Structures are given as structure tokens and as C-alpha cells.
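ugh ok fine here u go
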Amino acid sequence: MRTINLFANPNEFFEERIKYPTMTAQSAIILVTALAFGGQMIGVYFTTLGMEVNHYESLIIVLSIVQMIVPLVLWPAFTLIFWGIGKAVNAQLRFKLLLRLTGWGFLPMIGAGMSLALGRYVPLRAANPCNAALVCDPAYTGTLTLLVEDLFLYIGSATSSVVFQAAFVVAVLFILLSAYLWYNAVYEASTLTRQGAFLAVAPQYWSALWCTPT
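structure:
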């Protein structure tokens, strides 16, 4: 079954994937999604190269790791929520099967992460970090709170850019596509009706959107 069918005919794709118990491809998708999400902070790091802002490096690394962890947590968390909602209405479904199928739904999230990373990198690269919010002084010894405030002000300065706003719209569309795939995955993996699958997935779309760093 070609991956293109995941988008062209998701129901047929998931029906076929039910036969395969492996999660190698899905795990790879999640790992790439994690890298795409972490790409935002990695991009921020590259915009500060050559500047005297070494005091922010550790914080940037930590935030990159946090952003990469988000997809790793969302996969089992969303699956557990879908499974719990199904069980609450006495639907027949298996957690492992649901986990396998919902993993495919994260494929568009790679596009969402890359879009946001690029949308933030471009305007920040065109700006001077020292004029934006960061303190470019090797002797700067600000508290952790101040460092966090400085860094988030710098990161947030990109949101007023048309480039970032366009990238955010694209990311929202990618997340919507993921929700559509989760909806079909839940429907195929359970005895839920179409309406039931939609009600199970709809709140998680907003959760995914909320978890998307902006």
C-alpha cells in the first residue's frame, strides 16, 4: 500500500494497515516530527551565531529538547484519549491497533513543524538579535528568569512578520490534515460511528494546535 493512499484514500489505507503489526514506519514519522518541531529552536540558535550570546545557549538547547519531546508525548497521549472515549461509549477497539494507526496521522505534522521553523527563522535571520531582545554581552549574568524572558521576547518578535504569519496558516492546515487522518484512523480501528470518531478527535485538534509553539 503506497503512502500516497494515506491522503488519497485514508480509509482504504488504514484498512490495509490493520494487517501489519509493526510500528517501524510510524516511529520514524514521530522521530522526524520531533526533529521538525525542535527545528524552531535550532533555527533560533543559528540566528545567534557570531553574536556574544553564549549565555543563552544552554536555554536554547533545553527548549529544543522540550519541543522535540512534544510529539513523542502526543502520540501515546492522543491514542489513550481516543481509546478512553471509545471505551466510555462501549465501542470495540484495541489500544495497540489504535496506536499503530494514529501514528500515521502525524505525517502532516512534519510539515507543520518545518513550516513554523522556517517561518520563524527567516524574519529572525534578517534581524539583529542584539537589537531585538537579547543581551549581547559575554559578561552578562542575568538570572534564569531574565534569560527566559529575553529569549522569548526575541523568539516572539518573529510573529509580527508576514512570513511567520503565512507559515502559521500553513501549519494550521497541516495540523487539520493530521486531525482528518486521526479521525479516519479512529473510525477504522473501532466500532465508533463517523460522528463518534469525529467527536473523539475534534478536541485533540485544538490540543495539537495549542501544543504547537508560536
